[in-house]
Amino acid sequence: MGQSSSGFVLAAVVAGLCSTGSIGASAERGDAIPLVVIVHDGAVVHPETLDQALKEAARIYRQLGVTLEWHSDSARVGAQGFSVQLIIQDKLRPASDRTEQFLMGVAVAPWHDCRGTVYLFNDQVAKFASWRRLRSALAMGTVIAHEIGHVLLQRKGHSPEGLMRAVLNDGDWERAALGILLFAPDDAAIVRANTSSCR
């Protein structure tokens, strides 16, 4: 499929997600902080998988009072608030210095002016999900949430517990499947503070 097809598919997914309001909007929290995520799907991910992955990432952020607002066109997004570019690539380009078995995503530093960019590598996510026997959408949504977390925490380092661990173990993925793999409390406070400061 060509570029116009991928753009149409993504626009349809995002339009569907936003038709009932922003993903992650919480009726219980009147103090929810908006976070704009502009999705560039260069991998042409299956629409249902992408839809479920974005919902999974949004659910994680909803737990700490941050509402993810998905967009497919950065030109239509206003300058207010924090914004993240999510670039989904079909494949990870080989790197000679790579030591990880699966490198599913990366956040690009430096982060400043309430903006950031993260990359997700669709082939790596698919291979990892198959190897771990996970739903692809669960793996993808968890990776998206983790990489956006780096941007919001404004650091490349990892945490000893929670979603921002360097390597998620069997127990972590079991918690992810149950919907209880979240940010550690200290990380959650920083994410909320940094996102709020950009309003």
Search tags:
199 residues; alpha/beta; Collagenase (Catalytic Domain); five-stranded mixed sheet; 6 helices; 5 strands
Summarize the model shown.
With 199 residues, this protein is α/β, with parallel strands linked by helices. The protein has helices spanning 3-18, 47-62, 122-132, 136-153, 170-178, 185-196, and strands at 33-41, 66-71, 82-89, 105-112, 115-121.
Can you put this structure into words, describing what you see?
With 199 residues, this protein is α/β, with parallel strands linked by helices. It has one domain (3-196): Collagenase (Catalytic Domain) (3-Layer(aba) Sandwich). It is built from 6 helices and 5 strands. Strands 2-1-3-5-4 form a 5-stranded mixed beta sheet. Helix 2 (47-62) links the parallel strand 1 (33-41) and strand 2. The longest helix is centred in the C-terminal third of the chain and has 18 residues, at 136-153. It is globular, with a radius of gyration of 16 Å. The protein starts with a helix and ends with a helix. Mean pLDDT is 82; it is low at 1-28.
